[in-house]
Amino acid sequence: MTPRSLVGMTMGCRKRVVRARCWEAGYTLRRNRFSLTSDQLRALDVTERAECAKIRETYRIGQRLRPCPGCPSCTDSSRLQVMGWVRRIGGRAKLTRIFSRWYQRAEYLLMIYRRGPTWNPAAGGGVTKAEAWENMRNCLREHNELNVSCDGSGVLPARAKKVRR
Fold this sequence. Notes:
Elements: H1 11-24, H2 38-58, E1 65-67, H3 78-89, E2 92-98, E3 107-114, E4 120-126, H4 129-142, E5 155-157
Antiparallel strand pairs: 1-5, 2-3, 3-4
Helix pairs in contact: 1-2, 3-4
């Protein structure tokens, strides 16, 4: 189980998994409690609550999660890192195939349009698509544009839902 796998999981599913993991670990979770004395039950509750709380916090119950947009601490993919940066700045990226001569091999040009008073483009390119993304990522690294936006777990807290009134 990775934190990234929790993104699409419902709260009910997360709770079922926590209950199953606590049951596998040997914690009774309110089962077979009628056979215990009150002193045993109090002692059992303290240890069970602490251990089950540890299991429960790994599943982030009660938190709405969204995947990380692609920061360097979460992924090694140059395409995901560049696209995550483009989303954060509110820009857009366009990858085009260009030919300098009809008999030569095609090259790829990656243009990133940044918002501002005018759309300021940034360009990078390469012989392959992967090389174009890599060149753009290196350019962004040189200018210290790639900021880490999460703790490296791959998930971020989601924005609150709009409430209808």
